[in-house]
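SEQUENCE-TO-STRUCTURE ENTRY
===========================
What this section holds: a protein sequence and its matching fold, both as plain text.
Question of interest: how does this chain fold, as expressed in C-alpha cells?
***
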Amino acid sequence: MKISEHIRNAGLVTLLGATLSLGLGMNANAKEVNPNGWNVPSLEGYTKVREKWQDGDDDPNTGVDGKETLYEIFNKEGTGIITKYSTAKATFAWAKAKNPFDPDAYIIIDSDCDGVFEEKYNFNETFNMPGCAK
C-alpha cells in the first residue's frame, strides 16, 4: 500500500478534521538511498498525541503475527505530524507529513537496523518493513 493510502485510511489520529497516519506497504517501489542516512525529524515543539500497536508488515507469512508495530504519532499545530515506527527489535522508520494530502510527505527507513536511516520513500511509493525489525 502507498503511504498516501495509509495516511487517508489508517485512522490513527484525527487532526484538522482529517485522518492522519503513516504505515507500511507490501512491496518496495522506487526509493532514494543515502549511505550516510537522512536525519531523523526533530520532535522539538511536537506533542505525542497517540500510540497504537498494529500490523505493520501486512504479511501473514513473515512469522510476525498481528500487531507487532508500535506507531507513535506526534503533532505540532500548523506543522503536521511525525510518526515513529518500532518493533520489539528496533525503531526502523520515521515519517513526516503536513496533512493527509501532502505531496512532500516522506518516510525514512533503517533497512539494516544499524541506526542509519538510509532509504527514503515519497508520498506515492510503497515500502517493506526491514527484515531486521521482524
Remarks:
- Confidence is low (pLDDT under 50) at residues 5-28.
- The beta strands are 13-15, 18-20, 32-38, 47-54, 69-76, 80-86, 91-97, 106-109, 117-122.
- Residues 3-133 form one domain.
- The helical segments are 3-9.
